[in-house]
Write a structure and sequence with these properties.
By secondary structure, this protein is of the alpha/beta class. 21% of the residues lie in helices and 28% in strands. The protein starts with a strand and ends in a 7-residue tail after the last strand. Bound molecules: zinc ion.
């Protein structure tokens, strides 16, 4: 099976009537944030597979025809501050949304607040180890871990607690977005201890279980 990871920018290869032919082996979609809901809802309904996501730092509230507002895509599963075991796919997932705080808007957090939220995942990770033999398969965040594929400006600086989590709980994969890849020299895939850190900017099709040479 394959994971279709999405983040930050909409691409015509994904937002296409041929999406099923383009991604025939996708068994789940993971969005790392900053994508409009209509885009995620299109992918979800066209592929008809589970879609897990975290919000980025840019979250829009939309008003529906009935006047109600909502700030999440329909039918998708929000991973923020959650540890979820998908029984059907035999996958342990956990996530943290947002970025470092650089203005007075929601979905931005201090490093200390990120630590607090990451530590909140620990009981669920320990339970996974007990029940399923490993702490975590895929860690999903919007921001990058500290000093891995991050940037030096405050909004795009990496998160220290993410780096600690992947070193300590050894997920096979850490998917993030937020850092836009405008030049091919910027790294989008880094091995860190036992974890492959992947920037999902645009889209990435990732084989699962992860091959050793991927
Ligand atoms: Zn972002």
């Amino acid at each position: 099976m394959k994971i279709l990871a999405l983040s930050d920018v909409e691409l015509p290869a994904v937002y296409s009537t041929r999406i099923r032919e383009r991604f025939p082996d996708a068994a789940l979609v993971i969005s790392c944030g900053d994508l409009p809901y209509y885009y995620l809802e299109y992918v979800l309904s066209a592929l008809d597979i589970p879609l897990y996501y975290v919000h980025g730092n840019h979250v829009t509230e939309i008003t529906q025809d009935d006047g109600e507002t909502r700030a999440e895509p329909w039918g998708a599963i929000n991973l923020h501050r959650k540890v979820i075991y998908d029984r059907k796919l035999d996958l342990a997932l956990a996530g943290i949304e947002g970025s470092l705080r650089y203005s007075h808007k929601p979905h931005q957090y201090s490093q200390a607040r990120m630590w607090w939220m990451v530590l909140g995942l620990v009981p669920g990770l320990l339970l996974n180890k007990l029940l399923h033999g490993r702490y975590l398969d895929i860690f999903v965040t919007h921001s990058a871990p500290e000093n891995i594929q991050d940037d030096t400006d405050l909004p795009h600086r990496g998160i220290a607690a993410f780096r600690w989590l992947i070193k300590t709980f050894k997920p096979r994969l850490h998917l993030h977005g937020h850092v836009h890849l405008y030049t091919p020299i910027k790294p989008w895939k880094t091995r860190f201890h036992q974890t492959l850190v992947v920037n999902a900017y645009g889209f990435r099709e990732i084989p699962w279980p992860l091959p050793k040479d991927w």
